[in-house]
Amino acid sequence: MDRLTQLERWLASRHPDARFALAPASMDASFRRYLRVSFEGRTPPTAIAMDAPPEREDCRPFVHVAHLLGEAGLNAPRVLDQDLAQGFLLLTDLGTTTYLAALQSAEDDALPERLFADAVDALVKWQLASRGDMLPPYDAQLLRRELDLFPEWYVARHLGITLAPAQREVLDRTFALIIGSNLAQPRVYVHRDYMPRNLMVCDPNPGILDFQDAVYGPITYDLASLFKDAFISWDEARVLDWTIRYWEKAKRAGLRVDSDFSAFWRDFEWMGLQRHLKVAGIFARLAYRDGKHQYLADTPRFIGYIRPVAQRYAALAPLARLLDELEPRRDPGHGG
Q1: Which of 26, 173, 195, 206 stands 20 to 30 A from 317 (CA)?
Q2: Which of helix, strand or coil describes residue 190?
Q3: What is the CB neighbour count within 10 angstroms for residue 87?
Q4: Virtual CA dihedral for 119, 125, 128, 130, nearest 10 degrees?
Q5: Could you give all domains of the chain from N- to C-terminal order, each with its CATH number?
Q6: What digits encode the pLDDT tens for the residues 165-207?
Q7: pLDDT of 219-258, one tens digit each?
């Protein structure tokens, strides 16, 4: 029996008196998919069915983190029904407009300011709710495993380059510096993909999606995900301004951000460096392992994020030189 038929039978067994129709809602980079369930004559008229094949995906982290987000007072999908053995969840529907879609089509220059202000307020609430025993740690082992995706998939597979021993040593030393910086930060709940594609324009704003990989880790991680996104870029002056606004709100709220903004900015940049090296590797893996080649178009954006940071800090100069050896400079373009 195919997954769609299995899902339809599960929904029919849970709602024997209801007439409903299914339509694609969204896909993500994993093996999960989401379908919008339209119920005839019901209020609310729609819900979201998550199909997560249990041999490939575990629904339990999603259910757990959804509960934590709800406890924090945030607008995340509520779990209406679940069948963990089959890999099905029925969730509340947060609508159809992502931050990314709204930002890409925005004609009002004030819209990014409003949307990101709401996202920052939600992020501060999420971080204030943090407890150390509720989520897996974003530890040195996980940070390093993610960084290793860059040489394995971006350099070796995408660029087709076998690193010389000296080049590999540069990466190893740089990765150790990055991880040391990341782990020196205060730790909070980390969504781990807090970016415009996973935030919905709704009331209350934002709706928060795709949170099942949440961990307990560095305080700047979600901020770097939000302002230096995989699919839309902003000029550095705007990112700096938004980061200052977060820092001021976080300080007022009692979060343990560094009292010196220049030190906080360095933490933010070095955390972004970890994420951008990782995502360049992930996007290459999605293309070459999983056949999702559309992600490759955005890899130059990540090299465009990485280069200025590597050039700005003396300790990262070897990484800057290595990038110049591996590929010519590219202009990632900037939008927003």
Answers
A1: 195
A2: strand
A3: 23
A4: -80
A5: 3-91 (3.30.200.20), 99-326 (3.90.1200.10)
A6: 999 999 999 999 999 999 999 999 999 999 999 999 999 999 9
A7: 999 999 999 998 999 999 999 999 999 999 999 999 999 9
